Amino acid sequence: MFENLNWWEIGALLLLALLIFGDKLPNVISDGLRMVRNLRNMARNATGDLSRELGTDIQLEDLHPKAFIRKHLLSEEDEEALRKPLRGIYDTVKSDLDGVKDEMKDVAAAADIRTPAPAPASTPATRPRRFDVDAT
What we know:
Layout: H1 7-21, H2 25-54, H3 65-73, H4 76-110
């Protein structure tokens, strides 16, 4: 919970809490802990009631709408039927993008200035290379 805070910042927060609340600090801490315990019990009771009403075993993580639908309303066949058309599109787009990626690597390798192409042996003087770029 406090992984982003170092020891100096935690100490400063405790000192600030002591200055603000003074002698009431132990009571404030116990009230905060009691509130957290009550919230956990309420969440546990709510999931228990939902599990009992729906007749399935529901965890707190299952209350996310996507996870709930995937786990409790869709069968594996229904989920596969929903994914099948999208999987074909995904495979087609992925193969097209892989082809574009390979072509871009070839273009980048051909246009790499760091590795000059060997000059022909019959040319007496080497002229600087020019790249004409089409602006279309």
